[in-house]
């Protein structure tokens, strides 16, 4: 029988380029660590079960639901929350598009939608297919980021107000701007990382190399 | 902050011009703080323990071991909780005693709050709540809802239970065409993205509650009455609200938080879990509706009967008044409507976006479509032939009635004229295609409110009103209304809402919020402008004017006051898999003056999106054996996701309300009305099969298939 | 949720040693199912051994033309991988049909195989459930079961396996590799999931404390023409009510090889061997597709409210095989 393990740890989280050292109960999710311990309440708790997407953040540049991510297991990863998306006072094009096109109503799902949209744009740029991509074979090339593709890729983010129509327009507009000038968000990868990091593109390339 | 030029010299014309949300930047950067996101020193966390039986008594609670657990501060339950008063009349009537937690040992439904565990951290509170052993004396429960209940009774709610004129049987007998069908809608849940949350604390002898609700003075009044406090000693704030749709009034979490904050004399936050929301925050009752229509061969209605059965709890009466929609939409020589109710061992339902109209319009507008088919008349023409001149039941004149203008504009834009009315003819690959339409209406009203407008010494204006912006865009709309009333640009107006200290005001509900608040803001602004024209200069503390619209609204003449709309949908149905997809929707509305076209469009489209969700997805399943929900979460209770929602267009015709100072009617609810019927009618047009039971889901569509030629529509 | 210890494994042998000595320990991969079940009180581990950073995150081509997929490869990386998309398109489609982009970024291949049913009685600790609490009963049989099993269920449990990925893996004869403190082992996917019988709480044939290290996909030329079709109650972000992974090799109008597996109809991904047998050598037409489906579905035992699934699967077999036949002709 193993000895009773410690049930809390002192961890360091890299959030939006800042390092935070904090003691956590192992039960604490990344979402609760952000909201309750770091006062970063932009990531929202809608269901706490991975069923709504309101808590979406970027982990090592990839979107993830922070309610199912234990904080202790997020140590060493680069975490980007909605608070880290804008460039100072300048809104990210995705944020600006949501604002201009009214891609929200109550605003509660909005940070998750925006973080998810950042992920969608990156994943699409990396050539990832989706469930509505007619031909997933690499020879078929990357599908254009049509409204149908955006809807499918954004489906992990529920919006009960029913703002989907303008959210899709906002993501399309921002994606176009992204393609035009290849503006990418800071992923705030700290210098001292020891675990895997990088954008979706990097990770895909890494996986591709492994097949060679 | 605007999408169109406000110009430097423009001093009116803000109303009717598209403006992005004044709090938009906060919402897209994560800076907007919702109820559970405001930190306090010494904050303790409460976790509700809810019943695991549907009916019976609490025999015992084993609190001692829980109180020993790390971090646990207290356990509140019916033996030790403060007594509260639930025998009062609040702003919206008598309260649902569901909110008066821990007062007795009776359990009236599954998921009833039996205790609150308070601990230093949410993790500790949750574990302790899970560990609390509660023993029950279980009694047999009855949760079986069906149209066959002998114990059903006619129930009023906020409208007469029964209306009857003419001899129904003889008019039906004399009719050339009769439709007689039963429609059902399931239990549906608001499911706002933000769970209900409240933090209560005592601050200098005042109780302060930071909450997520649809009306701060409403909740303040309820809490004051329930805890027998002077209303002035209670302050409720609710700056940002992550959706409400009718569910965010007084609920167990605020009451429990106040009890715990009082007991512990430190701030206590109680947040409901998603699962708890299913039993503690209200829902839309399932309905069974029978519609009988009798018409002459030309479609003119001789007989109309709309009977609706809904359910409520054993502790509070709430009526889903689905038959009410027939009292507005269509007249007939014999016109009978009835809202009936059965009481079961279930939680109390409540208002949910377009209460009555949403399920009622599904049944009535689907039945109209069946009548159109049987008469061989275009569905729009059928509605035109049956447009009432006066209220079918009230006999009162309509303030405005622009339904047909909506249909005309909608038909033009949707391409309705090219539609072949025959069902089951259009195919695209595996998909059968069809189009459908339905009418919409929702009552337009205003309720008394107060507003405070201050001319500041720096040339700006501050508006204070206990309004709630639950996503409607009210904060922005009121900014525009105030700007026009003050004849300044919107950037000089600062609107502060969501604080009961600002004085009594209407809630965000009944599609009456923005109209009621705008009226009060307009009145105060008008008086302030008069004061300013006296030219006495503005002192450092500003010049403040308060308005109260009670008298003006009380003087309104009795009329039938409604918004109207025409819904259009195109669907694709694969009858081999049962999948239904909405391909496009169009809604044209006559809904008063549109204050902010940008956010108003979002409201209409949001309502129509709810219509898709209602038509195809939503159903809360009650397990008959346990009396509780099956799959009470967002994976089990499906609301429409991105992929379910096609491009939706919403627009409006000119329809200012003649008796409102701004011309507003209200737009929050009419968007869902008729939307599910338009989709169901389109599914019939695609497949030739009438689906009279929502949701129209693969397990229903697949067995029903497509009607063969000549045997369409049983 | 009770308190628990947390350790991050740095190598496979360390990970399996930790679990071998602590029966209350569980491996943590992406956490998308385990953490959810811990919140629900269904899983109550005393210790989590985080295996996400083990060096098992590679997809490699095997010399024989198959693929070796590491257990900690994320669902996203699996679906995005060019060789998966080229050689086993139905596998990429199946993964993409599951969950959401966020969850696919987190979820691992090993964890996907081990995810638990989404039966609403299983996830509600206040309800009886033989899978969660053996002997407590199965309320689904008399209660809500419109999305429960029609094949291979028992009077003790009618829950379905929720994975989409596993359906495609079943069609392609995947083999699961694992490691224990006492050595490695392998299980063909066909033997990986145990029959329900009267032990619905015993779900896999993995030895106690075993860590899935990877999946081997044998070479399958037939898989290059393959498809996954999933039917669900909304267009995305929902578990299947019926799904099919199909691969077809048609020459001169005759079925030379075929693979068929069904999802959301059983406690495990359902490899349709009877249908495959009926189809090999048969004409590639709707009639034989339907006959093959009927051969497989003859064993179906639907409950009062899930009989539509029999029709659904039959229709999916015909539709998808017909599409593949047409595609083969192009």
From TrEMBL, chain B:
Residues 29-140 form the Aldehyde oxidase/xanthine dehydrogenase a/b hammerhead domain. It comes from the Bacteria. One of its GO terms (molecular function) is oxidoreductase activity. Residues 1-17 have a biased composition (Low complexity). Residues 1-22 are annotated as: Disordered. InterPro entries: Ald_Oxase/Xan_DH_a/b, Ald_Oxase/Xan_DH_a/b_sf, Ald_Oxase/xanthine_DH-like, AldOxase/xan_DH_MoCoBD1, AldOxase/xan_DH_MoCoBD2, AldOxase/xan_DH_Mopterin-bd_sf. Keywords: Molybdenum, Oxidoreductase. PANTHER family: ALDEHYDE OXIDASE 1-RELATED (PTHR11908:SF132), XANTHINE DEHYDROGENASE (PTHR11908). This is Xanthine dehydrogenase family protein molybdopterin-binding subunit.
Automatic annotation (TrEMBL), chain C:
PROSITE patterns: FAD_PCMH. GO terms for molecular function: FAD binding; oxidoreductase activity. Residues 1-222 form the FAD-binding PCMH-type domain. Pfam families: CO_deh_flav_C, FAD_binding_5. Keywords: Oxidoreductase. Gene3D superfamilies: 3.30.465.10, CO dehydrogenase flavoprotein, C-terminal domain (3.30.390.50), Uridine Diphospho-n-acetylenolpyruvylglucosamine Reductase, domain 2 (3.30.43.10). PANTHER family: OXIDOREDUCTASE, XANTHINE DEHYDROGENASE SUBUNIT C-RELATED. This is Xanthine dehydrogenase family protein subunit M.
């Amino acid at each position: 029988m193993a000895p009773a393990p410690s049930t809390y740890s002192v961890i360091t989280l890299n959030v939006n380029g800042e390092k935070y050292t904090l003691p956590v109960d192992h039960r604490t999710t990344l979402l609760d660590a952000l909201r309750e311990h770091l006062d970063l309440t932009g990531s929202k708790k809608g269901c706490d079960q991975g069923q709504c997407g309101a808590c979406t953040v970027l982990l090592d540049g990839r979107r993830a639901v922070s309610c199912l991510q234990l904080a202790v297991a997020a140590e060493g990863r680069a975490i980007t929350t909605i608070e880290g998306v804008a460039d100072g006072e300048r809104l990210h094009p995705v944020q600006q598009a949501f604002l201009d096109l009214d891609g929200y109503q109550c605003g509660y799902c909005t940070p998750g939608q925006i973080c998810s949209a950042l992920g969608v744009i990156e994943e699409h740029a990396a050539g990832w297919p989706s469930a509505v991509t007619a031909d997933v074979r690499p020879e078929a090339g990357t599908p254009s980021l049509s409204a149908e593709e955006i809807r499918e890729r954004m489906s992990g983010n529920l919006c009960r107000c029913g703002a989907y129509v303008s959210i899709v327009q906002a993501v399309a507009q921002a994606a176009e701007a992204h393609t035009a000038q290849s503006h990418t968000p800071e992923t705030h990868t700290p210098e001292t990382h020891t675990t895997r990091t990088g954008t979706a593109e990097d990770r895909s390339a890494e996986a591709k190399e492994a097949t060679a | 902050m605007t999408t169109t030029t406000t110009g430097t010299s423009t001093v009116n014309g803000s109303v009717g011009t598209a403006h992005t949300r004044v709090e938009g930047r906060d919402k897209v950067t994560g800076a907007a703080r919702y109820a559970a996101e405001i930190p306090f020193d010494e904050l303790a966390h409460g976790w509700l323990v809810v019943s695991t039986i549907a009916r019976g008594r609490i025999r015992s609670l084993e609190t001692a071991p829980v109180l020993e657990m790390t971090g646990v501060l207290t356990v509140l339950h019916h033996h030790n909780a403060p007594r509260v008063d639930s025998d009062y009349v609040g702003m919206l009537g008598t309260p649902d005693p569901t909110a008066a937690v821990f007062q007795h040992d009776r359990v009236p439904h599954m998921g009833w709050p039996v205790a609150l565990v308070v601990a230093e951290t949410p993790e500790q509170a949750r574990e302790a709540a899970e560990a609390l052993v509660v023993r029950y004396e279980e009694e047999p429960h009855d949760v079986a809802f069906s149209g066959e209940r002998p114990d059903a009774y006619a129930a009023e709610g906020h409208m007469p239970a029964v209306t009857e004129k003419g001899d129904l049987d003889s008019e039906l007998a004399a009719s050339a065409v009769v439709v007689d069908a039963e429609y059902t809608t399931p239990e549906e849940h608001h499911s706002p993205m933000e769970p209900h949350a409240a933090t209560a604390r005592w601050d200098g002898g005042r109780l302060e509650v930071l909450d997520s609700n649809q009306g701060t003075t409403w909740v303040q009044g309820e809490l004051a009455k329930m805890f027998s406090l002077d209303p002035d000693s209670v302050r409720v704030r609710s700056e940002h609200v992550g959706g409400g749709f009718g569910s965010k009034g007084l609920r167990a979490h605020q009451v429990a938080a106040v009890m715990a904050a009082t007991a512990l004399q430190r701030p206590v936050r109680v947040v409901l879990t998603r699962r708890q929301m299913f039993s503690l925050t209200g829902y839309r009752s399932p309905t069974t509706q029978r519609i009988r229509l009798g018409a002459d061969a030309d479609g003119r209605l001789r007989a109309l009967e709309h009977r609706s059965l809904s359910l409520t709890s054993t502790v509070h009466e709430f009526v889903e008044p689905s038959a009410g929609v027939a009292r507005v939409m269509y007249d007939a020589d014999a016109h009978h409507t009835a809202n009936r109710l059965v009481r079961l061992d279930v939680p109390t339902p409540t208002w949910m976006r377009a209460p009555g109209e949403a399920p009622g319009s599904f049944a009535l507008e689907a039945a109209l479509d069946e009548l159109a088919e049987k008469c061989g008349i275009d569905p729009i023409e059928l509605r035109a032939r049956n447009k009432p001149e006066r209220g079918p039941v009230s006999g009162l004149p309509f303030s405005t009635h622009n339904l047909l203008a909506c249909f005309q504009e909608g038909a033009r834009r949707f391409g309705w004229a090219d539609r072949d009315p025959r069902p089951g003819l259009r195919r695209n690959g595996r998909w059968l295609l069809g189009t459908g339409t339905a009418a919409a209406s929702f009552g337009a009203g205003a309720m008394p409110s107060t507003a405070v407008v201050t001319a500041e010494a720096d040339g700006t204006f501050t508006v204070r009103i206990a309004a709630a912006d639950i996503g409607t865009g009210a904060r922005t709309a009121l900014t525009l209304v105030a700007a026009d009333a003050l004849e300044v640009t919107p950037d000089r107006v600062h609107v502060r809402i969501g604080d009961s200290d600002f004085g009594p005001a209407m809630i965000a509900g009944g599609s009456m919020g923005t109209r009621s608040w705008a009226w009060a803001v307009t009145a105060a602004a008008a008086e302030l402008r008069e004061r300013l024209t006296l030219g006495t200069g503005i002192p450092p503390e500003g010049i403040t004017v308060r308005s109260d619209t009670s008298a003006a609204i009380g003087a309104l003449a009795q009329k039938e006051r409604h918004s109207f709309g025409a819904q259009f949908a195109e669907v694709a149905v694969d009858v081999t898999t049962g999948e239904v997809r909405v391909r496009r929707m169009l809604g044209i509305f006559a809904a008063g003056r549109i204050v902010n076209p940008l956010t108003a469009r979002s409201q209409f489209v949001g309502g129509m999106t709810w219509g898709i969700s209602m038509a195809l997805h939503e159903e809360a399943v009650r397990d008959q054996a346990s009396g509780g929900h099956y799959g009470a979460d967002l994976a089990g209770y499906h609301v429409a996701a991105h992929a379910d929602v096609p491009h939706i267009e919403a627009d409006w015709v000119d329809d200012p309300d003649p008796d409102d100072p701004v011309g507003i009617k209200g737009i929050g609810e009419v968007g869902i009305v008729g939307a599910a019927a338009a989709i169901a009618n389109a599914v019939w047009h695609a497949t030739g099969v009438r689906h009279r039971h929502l949701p129209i889901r693969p397990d229903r569509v697949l067995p029903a298939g497509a009607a063969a030629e000549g045997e369409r529509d049983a | 949720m009770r308190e628990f210890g947390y350790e991050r494994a740095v190598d496979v042998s360390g990970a399996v040693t930790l679990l071998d000595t602590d029966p209350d320990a569980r491996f943590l991969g992406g956490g998308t199912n385990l953490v959810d079940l811990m919140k629900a009180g269904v899983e109550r581990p005393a210790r989590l051994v985080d295996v996400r950073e083990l060096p098992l995150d590679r997809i490699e081509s095997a010399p024989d033309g198959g693929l070796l997929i590491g257990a900690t490869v994320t669902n996203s990386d699996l679906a995005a991988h060019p060789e998966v998309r080229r050689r086993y398109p139905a596998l990429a489609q199946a993964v993409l049909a599951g969950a959401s982009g966020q969850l696919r970024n987190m979820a691992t291949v090993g964890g996907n195989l081990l995810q638990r049913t989404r039966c609403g009685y299983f996830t509600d600790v206040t309800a009886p459930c033989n899978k969660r609490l053996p002997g407590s009963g199965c309320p689904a049989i008399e209660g809500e079961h419109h999305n429960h099993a029609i094949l291979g269920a028992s009077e003790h449990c009618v829950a379905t396996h929720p994975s989409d990925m596993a359906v495609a893996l079943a069609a392609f004869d995947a083999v699961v590799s694992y490691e224990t403190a006492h050595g490695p082992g392998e299980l063909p996917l066909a033997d990986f999931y145990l029959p329900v019988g009267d032990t619905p709480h015993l779900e896999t044939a993995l030895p106690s404390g075993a860590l899935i290290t990877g999946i081997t996909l044998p070479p399958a030329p037939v898989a290059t023409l393959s498809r996954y079709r999933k039917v669900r109650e909304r267009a995305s972000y929902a578990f299947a009510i019926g799904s099919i992974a199909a691969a077809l090799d048609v020459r001169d109008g005759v079925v030379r090889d075929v693979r068929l597996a069904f999802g959301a109809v059983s406690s495990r991904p359902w490899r349709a061997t009877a249908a495959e047998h009926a189809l090999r050598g048969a004409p590639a037409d709707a009639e034989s597709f339907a006959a093959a489906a009927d051969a497989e579905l003859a064993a179906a035992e639907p409950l009062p409210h899930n009989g539509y699934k029999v029709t659904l699967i039959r229709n999916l077999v015909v539709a998808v095989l017909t599409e593949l036949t047409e595609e083969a002709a192009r």
